[in-house]
Amino acid sequence: MQTRHIIIGGVILVFISFILYTMYSPSSSQRSSAPPRSDLKVPQISYQDELFISDDNQPPALNSWFSSTYFKQGSEPVFVTPQAVQFTQEGFAFNLPRITSNSDTVFGSFGPEVRVDIGSNVTTTVASYDERKGSFSLSQQDQELLQVDLIRGTPVIYVSPVQEVNITIQASQITDTGDGYWQIDNNYGLYADQIRVDSQDTGSLDLTVNPESIIRFIVLPENVEWNPDLISLIRPEVIATKVNADKDSSTHKTKVEYQTTDNQAILLGSLQEVPQKEPQLIYQTLKGPLFVYAAQDIMIESSLVDIRTDIQANSFTAEQQEVLRNSLAQDIQDPQYPEDTYFGGKALARMAYLIEIADAFGWEEERDIALQSIIPELTKWLTVKQSPFEPYNFVYNKDLAILVGKESSFGSELGNDHHFHYAYFIYSASVVSEFDDNFYDTHREMVDLIATSFANIDREDSRFSYIRVFDHFDFHSWASGPALFGDGNNQESSSEAVNAWYSLYRWAQASENAPLAEKADWLHTHEINSAQKYWLNTDYLTETDYQHPLVSNLWGGKVDYATWFSDRDEAKFIIQFLPMGLNAHYLRDDRDQVQKHIDYLDSSLPDGYQDYQDYLLMYESIVRPKEAYQSFQDLSDESIDDGNSRTAGLLWIFESINKR
Length: 660
Prior knowledge:
Elements: H1 2-23, E1 44-45, E2 78-79, E3 84-87, E4 91-95, E5 99-101, E6 105-108, E7 114-117, E8 123-129, E9 133-140, E10 143-151, E11 156-161, E12 165-170, E13 174-178, E14 181-184, E15 188-193, E16 196-201, E17 204-209, E18 214-219, H2 231-234, E19 238-247, E20 251-260, E21 266-270, E22 281-285, E23 288-295, E24 297-303, H3 318-331, H4 341-360, H5 364-382, E25 393-397, E26 402-406, H6 418-433, H7 437-455, E27 470-471, E28 476-477, E29 490-491, H8 494-510, H9 514-535, E30 553-555, E31 558-560, H10 569-574, H11 591-604, H12 613-620, H13 625-633, H14 646-659
């Protein structure tokens, strides 16, 4: 009986595949605008480990700067900027990270220089959060004692007693300077009003506080003394923060707003200097200066970044087109489609890009063969199934509020790298939808759901946190879901993060979803700006011992020339380049930067590229196109990355040649 079911299932699968093959036909019919969200139901699973999540109907903010607070009693350090904070079993501790470095790493590490204790066996839960604010509840035996508010860019820690509680503050030196202010060591201070001082000595201060008390810790820049005028800027409570985007013909305008009690100004920080405003304080951070203003809102302007969605076929010579077509005919034969979300997604995107290339040049036969290859495979992933254990399926983890692909990879079951992985599916679906209305109509809701899972732009959608992977202070993404590291969260592949928002934009175009397109455009611009500023460039590290021309992995608390998967120089570079298609043309914008990178590789790899030769030669072609082309022609098929193709490499290099 079991064998019979297998045979019947196989016949059905073949029949479905046949229908998909034979029903394909390019279409240009008008498509209705996309719904605001997908309500598609997928199987649910639970997370079995212990979580500390408050019952406030907000989904966990995995991939955030404070992710670790969800996963254990006493979090890893969270890097608020300028201060770093760690919740402990006694309360919390904090410091102003000092920048230290060696040739491969720049540190801005946490160290518990000031401790704030409220007892023992203290548990911390996330009470609420928004774009730049995290509120944390500190409890003993299920009795909430304090709420601690941390706001990105604000050098103030806001402590609100929920009931009468004893607080002990410990540091090297605590001095009462009057007016409710205590100087703590050289860089810290405490402002407290309506409290009782129980005892004080050189390094310890005991207070009794109650719900009427105002408790504010402030972190001061190096060599800056306390100014009593700052009291009016640290007293107001920050109720909420919001980051809103707008644009004109040439500029993205990002408004950062802090809602405060009585609409009073506070200390509001930005890693970008704001014109026409005088900073109150300037901090030296891991990412350069933090400018802190007396304000409730600031406006940050960024030049628009072009999103390229077409291949300019008429710019290629007849000889180049012949080479490309011969290569394409080989690349679309016998593709391999792995079953995990990363390598499976890359394989789909590889074929989707070949479809775009074939269509751009009018090679309909090759395009249709590629479509017939990808549609059944992509359909397996996008078909909703009843069991969470079937392959090629996505399931919803109701505890972590994430969508998880079966099979997962690189920790994606905990939220890791979702924007990297899922972008490949979204891009592939976008391309196929251009040619097959039936595919689009059948699978659009599932693609919407995959996109929403990491890029939810609806603040009222309680299934997923708001644009989960993107940091609205640093203006780039974070890759780790739990972020259970002493150096905070991290992101290795700046280029795959850019590809996430590029792919989201392509899907917004395919589904005619204007709000999603606008948000994807904004995210794309900021991710590229951050990639150029913090990964591909090291000007912000000139006062350190760092010896490399790019950064391979950026953390909340350090900058690293290292990758998770290889110690080779080639790996440390290509993880900032791949995938190299229409999404990656921003890499061409700064030829001097590219030349600096290639010169470095020439000196560090005297025997030439041993790994990832295809991507490195494509990148090299920006400044040495003819030499790169000659070397690329000699590459074996095994030298081409599984997410790349010889055709895509040749197309990129020919563009480099033609631009010269």
